[in-house]
Amino acid sequence: MIYRLAILGGILVLGTAGCGGTNTTETTAAPATTAAPATTAAPTTSVVQSSTSAAVTTAPPGPSMALGVADSALGQILVDAAGNTLYLFTPDDSGPSVCTDDCAAAWPPVLGEATAGPGIEATLLGTTIRDDGTSQATYNSWPLYFFAGDAAPGHTNGQGLNDVWFVITPTGEAVP
Question: Using CA atoms, how far apart are residues 103 and 71, in angstroms rounded to an integer?
Fold first, then answer.
């Protein structure tokens, strides 16, 4: 479960986003004070991830994430440096990501740029811009994702899910 806290216009907002569940939001008015004059401050946002969530995380925007190849029961597959499996989403059709909102909560995008680790063809690496303006790593023009249902490196629980999510090979193709 991911918890989001934000102070927007003097109101504390707590939101949660889970894998496959609904997002919930609680709003609490900030306590009124008379000790200092009111000022306008920029909203702040903090994201805290609970210790019970899956091992998969997304790369922060900007920095590079090294990709590599791992042997699995499905053959050789793309993974991040920690060994977490990477997926493609066939509705993306080798273009910009169409996985947003609840979809992106269950299938976190690989944000930022990726670099070529062992077994990765550097010429197949790239990025695309998501609807929210963030950059998402691509391989063979496919936007890359993790699956929140993969609780540990090496898991491939998202393979073939709904006939649209597939592990990706070192050649940039979906594993059938």
Answer: 27
